[in-house]
From TrEMBL:
Gene3D superfamilies per the UniProt record, alphabetical: 3.30.300.30, N-terminal domain of ligase-like
Enzymatic class: ligase
PROSITE patterns, alphabetized: AMP_BINDING
Domain AMP-dependent synthetase/ligase: 14-386
InterPro entries, alphabetized: AMP-bd_C_sf, AMP-binding_CS, AMP-dep_synth/lig_dom, ANL_N_sf
Coiled coil residues, start to end: none
Protein name according to UniProt: Long-chain-fatty-acid--CoA ligase FadD15
Top-level taxon in the UniProt lineage: Bacteria
GO molecular function: ATP binding; long-chain fatty acid-CoA ligase activity
Amino acid sequence: MADAMRLPLEVFYEREARHPDKRYMVQPLGGGRIEELTWAEVGEQARRAANWLRSRELPQGSRIAIISKNCAHWIIADLAIWMAGYVSVPLYPNLTAESARQVLEHSEAALVFVGKLDDWPAMAPGMPDGVPTVALPLHPEGRFDYQWSDLQACSPIRDTPTGAADQLATIIYTSGTTGTPKGVMHNFGNFAFAAENGLKLFETTDDDRLISYLPLCHVAERAFVEMGSLYGGQTVFFAESLDTFLEDLKRARPTLMFGVPRIWTKFQMGVYAKMPAAKLDFLLKLPIIGRIVGRKVLAGLGLDALRMALCGAAPVPEALLRWYQRLGLDVLEVYGMTENCGYSHLCRRGKIKTGWIGQASPGVEVRISEEGEVQVRSGATMQGYYKDPERTAEAITADGFLRTGDKGEVDSENYLRLTGRLKEIFKTSKGKYVAPAPIENRLAVHPLIEQVCVVGDSLPQPMALCVLSEVGRREAANGTTSELENSFRTLFDEVNKALDKHERLLTLVLLKEIWAVENGFLTPTLKIKRNVVESAYQGHFQTWLDRRETVLWHD
């Protein structure tokens, strides 16, 4: 049992001693230049930075913030913070100045590491007065109190601190789909429990490769990439930018990969942009040619070496999973939350049950409350919300179960199926309750729909707001709207036939604009902010209802 609780820093020291010269991180520097760091080099830099941090003589447990897009030194800074005895507070790299200040002040951050950022001038005013900044090697233009080279001028620490299992390691602020972010507190024991047990499911080797591109400040990337590489020994390749992502992916040719549904959909839409969906579907149905075409499509995406592909953090359309299966790739659903290190349920290879996520991961207890809420308990459950005992008490039951806020059911084989969010379920003006997520998943099967949000609170019937894919927008711009409308009417009829009367859609609204992080419609982890969508279009709801058209356009 003691072996099952090796703490993150312990595991790092073990790996560093076992293969110091093995390549650990591959970082693009721009202009085609690449930096490769070994385990020993990572350890050396982290120890020097830790010594510098200690020299500031901050109280033990002080909070140190990291604001950066993913890069090698994000993880090195995190290791250094832990070695120095402090608590890391990661921030999303695209926060507004106001949101950044809110987190930094709430966490009482004593220092801020600043790395790769797209718009530092917009975020910089959010830095509280008197809080020093340290520029990581990859950093934006601007004035910083210290450079990474200042930290590297220190000698490395000589001890090997590990922290204690119950010692606070990090405060992860949620991405705020519904309001003010909450600071989720995780100790080293939480990370160790999730990583050690998760490792048993993945069967990783030192030869595996990961690509880091989802925000490292999010629990999924933190668990899968940072903890995964420490405990599994994989090489981590970093993506340079969205523009170079496909090249980065092909260079890494990852063997293990986690992606949110939006990423897997983007890959699919990229394929459809090069080959019409109908043609690809026809080719994939052919016995021998289908397998060849599937392999070529995966190779073109840089996904041909994948041994395990995971998808989670939001509801996953079944049709999307089936599409990848036809290419020859099983994308396995994973379920978890920031509050439990992303560690709860995982679909196992060879045990895929359509419509169900999978069984509980080792060490996880599950129950369904009287209200139908999924509740889980494990060694990965958070310590609580920072400075917020009231919301902590709301989230964790007296007997230690985490209230997920998800409605669901468990079958006789302990497979879990989610049926909606407790807070997202809305009531129509007829007094009927509707869960939007299952309806959205049915609509997402259409190859020209990239995003969808079903609304209906206080309306007579629900309606669906659909963002067209790049191909869909192109076809609409080329004047083929009548053909598009016919295909959407067919979808509309098929979906409504499968729904109960009170759930049936009144109309599909086709949107040519895009919902993105930049315009506030998506969280940094690419989840749709329902409240933002509803408030943006609420003024049109009555007009759309009065038109009583099956399919209508909104520019």
